[in-house]
Amino acid sequence: MDNLFTLDIYVLAVFYFFMFHSKWLTPSGRKDWKTPKELYKELNKRFRFDFDPCPANPKFDGLSIEWMCSNYVNPPYGRELSKWLKKCYDECLKGKTVVVLIPSRTDTIWWHKYVMKASEIWFVKGRLKFDDKENGAPFPSAIIIFEGGSKGFPLIKSVNILAESI
Ligand SMILES: C[S@@+](CC[C@H](N)C(=O)[O-])C[C@H]1O[C@@H](n2cnc3c(N)ncnc32)[C@H](O)[C@@H]1O
Predict the structure, then answer these.
(1) Cβ(70)–Cβ(123) under 8 Å?
(2) Mutate to test the pocket of ligand 1, among 30, 32, 34 (most ligand atoms within 8 A of CB)
(3) Distant-in-sequence, close-in-space partners of 63: CB < 8 Å, separation ≥ 6
(4) What is the pLDDT of residues 15-36, one digit of tens each?
(5) How many domains would you assign to the chain?
(6) Is 115 among the domain residues?
(7) Which ligand 1 atom is nearest residue 33's CA?
(8) CATH (domain of 154)
(9) Alpha carbon 78 to chain centroid, angstroms
(10) What span, in angstroms and rounded, lies between the C-alpha atoms of 84 and 112?
(11) Which domain holds residue 36?
C-alpha cells in the first residue's frame, strides 16, 4: 500500500515537471499561425505594407531574398525564429520598415540580440485570435517595429488591439 502511494506521488511529480518545465509540451509545435485579418488591416493602415516575406504559400525563400520598403512579417514559430529576427534586423539596417508579429519569448537569445535593437516593442494585451478562430492563442504576442536603421532603446508599450482581454 505504502509502495503504491509512493509510486502515485512519483508519477504525479514527473507529470507536473513535464507540464511546467518541458518544451515538448508547449504549444510551439505549430508554426503557421495565421495573422488575424483585422489586426493586419489595422497595421496596414499605418505602415502601408508592400511585401510579406513569409506568406501562407511561399514560392520563394524569404530569408535569402531582398525585401521591399515596408514589410509585414509573421514568421514560422519554430527554432528558425532566430534566423527571421536576424533577417528583419539586417533589412532594417538597409533603411527598410519591418513590422514583425512574434510570440513574446523574452528569455531567448534572439529577443535580446535583435528585438532589443528595434525602434518599438508593442506587448499585446490578452491573446490574439490567430486564423480568425474563436479561441485566443496559447501564448502571448508582441509586435516589433524595426524602422529606419534603428539600433536600440526601443519605445515599449502595451497595446490592446483586437485582443481578447485577460
Ligand atoms: C506564421 S505563418 C504566416 C502566414 C501569413 N504571412 C500570415 O501572417 O498569416 C508563416 C509562414 O511562413 C512560411 N515560410 C516558412 N519558411 C519560409 C521561407 N523560408 N520563406 C518564405 N516563407 C516561409 C510558411 O509557409 C508559413 O505559412
Answers:
(1) no
(2) 32
(3) 53, 83, 84, 87
(4) 444 444 444 444 447 889 999 9
(5) 1
(6) yes
(7) 1
(8) 3.40.50
(9) 10
(10) 14
(11) 27-159
